[in-house]
Write a structure and sequence with these properties.
Chain lengths: 468, 100
């Protein structure tokens, strides 16, 4: 086994015991990047000084190990483009809180990964620098928008990666690439120094080879940040401490698989197998019927969430992208791609009274958002965890996004309600198609700040469901 | 709901300061109408008894002291390093006022 194929936990252990050296890790990682990056188009920039930096970090918890960083985290030593030509060649003047914290913990940014331009998408095909290909099968998309980070982990071009999720952008590519992706509760991890997309939704998180690696990463990423007023004061737990506690006695609710869009699909069958797995581990599992109204003991259909997200996210995009004027940095507004223009303008519609005279569509959408929050709050009074498929399907083929303005929303539909509510969720590999070598993911959702619980459940499931 | 035409797209693009070609205006109008059909279901669900949510975790009035934070302050050189146009240590912007 090459050292770039190691999990974070294993690599830390072997480095501590001096059974491998950090030089080996970087030699193997760079050899893998050299061999595969051209075809897969995962990294937009590479830190050539990574080994030199790592050598100064060897005494810290992350031991100088490489981290692939989505290209919307500001990094002072590497260009940050958010995969848009508007920011071509932009070298930030400051560092994001998350990459700074990871560096303080001994991590090294090994390179910046491709994404949908401005994170507007779920394919990594809308990047201005060309699509990333799925390492499990390069005829297919990696998902997105953190597709480069998911692919970097799947292709062993790093030990771990970080991404951001607004609605599905960590969990969906994790699902399609057959890796683990954790979206923490909104406000658990700082957004400071991340190219802003949907400010009321954006949640940075890890993409890793194992659940345990996500727990380790969250330990160093989470916490109050004075530079992001939306971060929580709540103490950060050691998420590795009780990781192996299991799910015995927990009550788990199953969402969305009775919905006509999902019911007869392979994801529904795979989820039923996951239910059996959780039952065999001692959990009590109930099916929760989908409803088109807010009703007790039912889960509100994801169909409205797609609409809420479409309105709210685009309104926030219109606001956030207004700062790109080409004066202080970057190119001017002529360089926005098709999707960014589409979203900016749609956002302004939602914030105007053009669509409806008597009420802003934006405000109406935020009321429906409240229904999702009420629905989850009620369900989490009865259930410890909720599960669903992460994405309705396996990875789609390259080219699938063309001319479909709602592509992303359809691929993310099962995680959008939880993103709008701001609760936490983790995608863990659930099934593998032996013919295509592609994966499905299981989405395990927890109440606000219940990262420990979703990690415990994901870990227990991962131990039994060994498919990687 | 209103039907989006090229004229409305032009108006919004002007507000957003987004330059558009004629073909783009038509494509965007078509796309917007499709999107409006998708989001139309928002108006079929009862929201009379709920208020809007803008901040999901309930934090309110998170304030800080109005002090200069050295850690988040740039040097002039750092602030100017990414601009294409500078003059005597300033950013250069387009003229917005007409000459007399």
């Amino acid at each position: 086994m090459k050292t770039n194929e190691l999990t974070l936990k294993k690599a830390i252990n072997l480095l501590e015991k001096k059974e491998i050296s950090i030089d080996e890790v970087y030699n193997d990682t760079f050899a893998a990047i050299e061999a595969k990056n051209k075809e897969l188009n995962i990294y937009l920039s590479i830190e050539k000084q990574a080994l030199k930096k790592a050598k100064k970090q060897e005494d810290k918890p992350l031991r100088g190990l490489p981290i692939a960083v989505k290209d919307n985290f500001l990094t002072q030593d590497l260009p940050t483009t958010a995969s848009s030509r508007v920011l071509d060649g932009f070298i930030p003047s400051y560092e994001s809180t998350v990459t700074k914290k990871l560096s303080e913990a001994g991590g090294v940014t090994v390179g910046k990964t491709n994404m949908d331009a401005w994170a507007h998408g779920s394919s990594t095909e809308t990047s201005d620098y060309g699509p990333t290909k799925n390492p499990r099968n390069p005829k297919y998309l990696p998902g997105g928008s953190s597709g480069g980070s998911a692919a970097a982990v799947a292709a062993d071009l790093t030990i771990v990666a970080i991404g951001t999720e607004t609605a599905g952008s960590i969990r969906q590519p994790a699902s399609w690439c057959g890796v683990v992706g954790l979206k923490p509760t909104y406000g658990r991890v700082s957004r400071y120094g991340i190219v802003a997309m949907g400010s009321s939704l954006d949640s940075p998180g890890p993409l890793t080879k194992t659940v345990e690696d996500s727990a380790i990463m969250l330990n160093f990423m989470a916490g109050k940040d004075d530079l992001d007023g939306t971060t929580s004061q709540l103490p950060v737990l050691d998420y590795t401490k009780n990781l192996k506690k299991g799910v015995d006695g927990l009550k788990i609710g199953v969402c969305y698989i009775d919905h006509p869009q999902i019911k007869n699909k392979e994801v529904a069958e795979s989820t039923k197998k996951a239910i059996k797995t959780f039952q065999s581990l001692g959990a009590r599992v109930d099916m929760i019927p989908t409803s088109h109204n807010l009703e007790k003991d039912k889960v509100l259909s994801h169909e409205y969430a797609i609409s809420v997200y479409t309105v709210v996210q685009r309104a926030e995009v219109a606001s956030n992208l207004s700062r790109y004027d080409g004066i202080r940095y970057g190119a001017d507004r002529n360089d926005f791609g098709k999707e960014a223009k589409n979203r900016i303008l749609l956002g302004i519609f939602g914030l105007s009274n053009i669509i409806k005279k008597d009420e802003l569509v934006y405000e109406h959408a935020q009321k429906v958002r409240s229904l999702y929050i009420d629905n989850f709050k009620q369900l989490f009074r009865d259930y410890d965890l909720l599960i669903s498929p992460t994405s309705p399907s396996y990875a789609l083929a390259l080219g699938a996004t063309s001319n479909d303005p709602m592509f992303g929303e359809l691929q993310d539909m099962l995680v959008e309600p939880s993103s709008l509510a701001g609760i936490c969720g983790i995608s863990v590999p659930m099934a593998k198609d032996e013919k295509t070598n592609l994966y499905l993911g299981l989405n395990i959702m927890g109440d606000y700040w219940q990262e420990e619980k979703i990690l415990q459940a994901a870990w227990a499931y991962e131990q039994v469901n060994k498919i990687i | 709901m209103a039907k989006i035409d090229k004229k409305i797209v032009e108006h919004i693009a002007n507000l957003a300061h987004i330059p558009l070609k004629d073909k783009e205006k038509e494509d965007l109008a078509t796309g917007f109408n499709k999107t409006l059909e998708v989001i139309d279901n928002l108006f079929s669900i009862d929201v009379l008894s709920v208020g809007p949510t803008y901040q999901v975790t309930g934090l309110e009035n998170v304030l800080r002291n109005d002090e200069v934070n050295e850690k988040t302050t740039f040097s002039q050189e750092n602030a100017l390093k990414n601009t294409k146009r500078k003059h005597n240590g300033y950013f250069v912007v387009d003229q917005i006022l007409e000459d007399d």
